[in-house]
Amino acid sequence: MTTATVMTTLSPADHRVTGPRVLRSETAKVWSLRSAKITVGLAMLFLVVFGWIFSGTYDPASTNQGPVDYQDAIGISLVGANFAQLVLGVFGVLIAAGEYGTGLIRSTFMAVPRRLPVLWSKAVVAGVCALVVGTAGAFGAFLIGYGLLPDGVQLPLTAPGVLRCLFGAGMYLGLVAVFGVALGMLLRNVAGGITLLVAGLLLLPELANLLPRSWNTTIAPYLPGRAGGAVMILYPDPQSLSPGAGLAVFAAWVAVTLAAATYRLKRTDA
Amino acid sequence: MIEARALTKRYGTKTAVDRVEFSVRPGVVTGFLGPNGAGKSTTMRMILGLDKPTEGTVTVLGRSYTGFPAPLTEVGALLEARSVHPGRTARAHLQGLAYTHGIPKSRVEEVLALAGLSEVAGKRAGGFSLGMGQRLGIAAALLGDPQVLILDEPVNGLDPEGVLWVRNLLTGLAAEGRTIFVSSHLMSEMALTAQHLIIVGRGRVLADTSLEEFVRTAGGDRVKVVCADPGRLSTTIAGPGVEVTGRGEELSIAGLGAREIGTAAAREGIALYELTVQSVSLEEAFMDLTRDAVEYHARSLESVGGSR
């Protein structure tokens, strides 16, 4: 067995690394990991189940004191988006930073030494998965709520703003997953990536509340979670950004993080 | 063909690789030898474009690794640290790499079979033993049918059968004209596999020599003879290239085989009490060479506890 060790001969000309090939590879890598399938499945579950529970138990009399968001059909049925954003963000962090933790990144970069296509492919895979799951989950939750909510609150799909909120939820969740990938590639560490993700989406708005009121009202609407969330709010309050502007601001946050991740990817040793 | 020119890597004030120069030629197995911390892994990572040299260059087949349009079909590598996601099966790991180059599924199965992993291909790599992990790494290195193979400590954790497999595999691939560059900190292993040696210590090249040359400068093979009349035996076998040392009835002879010495003794009627071939310890020669360059010296127990 000394010779004939390598049976197939492959010619470099037929096997160039191309964008679509890297994308194919990253897609296959996501679907061959249990943790990835679990996080994506959980996001779907959170959206649908929480929407279902909140819609089914909604009682107009007892929720009068609650936040404004939870008193319309969108606010009630999309309550699961708060949880889904975390798992989808974690999903993004995992598929990026997880490669650094396990050392797989070295194999990946030996196959794709230009590195950048790996980042883009991961961002696309995570973004598309989360977009599809988020949109499907949002529609599922809304339609379940439609069947359960009492007449005064129930809204049809055709009501103004409803479709914008549902598609917007999908787009927001898609961007959150890309945000996770960018944070994961930037920090190269799962725990660090998740910490920054939670901070960006949930903690910063809370911290902003500690600032003097005038500062808070100026800054808070531009924080990642608050800005992106604006697209899923049916009746925006005057202090938040408009749905379109909010999503654009969140997309800018994601773009800046991606740019920072790109810089680190190109400049530092793997 | 791998060529390093003034290759240097510094981390802060520490120089891991210091103006290293070498060429690795095709058709032979080249051993990259040095104690722990000598800069072997860092050098290999620079060859593979994972780490950027602080100064100098290193090329594979005449170009920098990052310039290859289809790197896996040119260069295959196994790194010392495991580089597999423990949650993925062996097959899925290789398939993920194969997709980046459009390498067919049949090739994935082929390298799995070649590495003896067909039966565990559907098992998650996290459960693999060190040896199986090494086999998976070698399978990944062979995936693209590369001309150049770079392996960092490939026999680490392998059982004797696995060690033999790697040895035969490397020799076979070199015979096909491929460039094989293998690192190790074990001289004994390299003596069996490599035809050429590049020995490093503290980031510098200490020797760049063929194995034969290394053996010769280390003292060559000697024969120990114990006989009734050492004086007469010495004069009988004396000749060009023959070196005899020793005292009393014991002689140490270089430049002649045990067979020739035995025949000569029989012809002269000298009784032999002992005739032993003594291979020089390459391990010792290697340690002599790298002694000053060892990063982490173990101290004896007395010297550690002696200060009390």
Task: Provide an overview of this structure.
The complex is a heterodimer of chains A (about 270) and B (about 300). Chain A has about 270 residues and is an all-alpha fold. Chain A has helices at about 20-30, 35-55, 75, 80-100, 105-110, 115-150, 160-185, 190-210, 215-220, 225-230, 245-265. The model of chain A has no long low-confidence stretch (mean pLDDT about 90). Chain B has 2 domains: about 1-215, P-loop containing nucleotide triphosphate hydrolases (Rossmann fold, 3-Layer(aba) Sandwich); about 220-280. Chain B is about 35% helix and about 25% strand. A 6-stranded mixed beta sheet of chain B has the order 5-6-7-3-8-9, sandwiched between helices. Chain B has a 4-stranded antiparallel beta sheet with strand order 11-12-10-13, covered by helices on one side. A 3-stranded antiparallel beta sheet of chain B has the order 2-1-4, covered by helices on one side. In chain B, strand 11 (about 245) and strand 12 (about 250-255) form a beta hairpin. The longest helix of chain B is centred in the middle third of the chain and has 16 residues, at about 160-175. Classes of the chains: A mainly alpha (about 270), B alpha/beta (about 300). At the A-B interface, helix 1, helix 4 and helix 5 of A face helix 2, helix 3 and helix 5 of B.
Give the quaternary arrangement of the chains. Answer: heterodimer
Number of helical segments of chain B?
A: 11
Briefly note the structural class of the backbone of chain A: mainly alpha
Radius of gyration of chain B: 24 Å
Number of strands of chain A: 0
| CATH fold label of the largest domain in chain B | Rossmann fold
CATH class of the largest domain in chain B: Alpha Beta
Topology pattern of chain A, helix = H, strand = E: HHHHHHHHHHH
Task: Give the overall shape of chain B, derived from the CA principal axes.
Answer: elongated
Biggest sheet strand order of chain B reads 5-6-7-3-8-9
General shape of chain A: globular
Number of distinct beta strands of chain B: 13
CATH architecture grouping of the largest domain in chain B: 3-Layer(aba) Sandwich
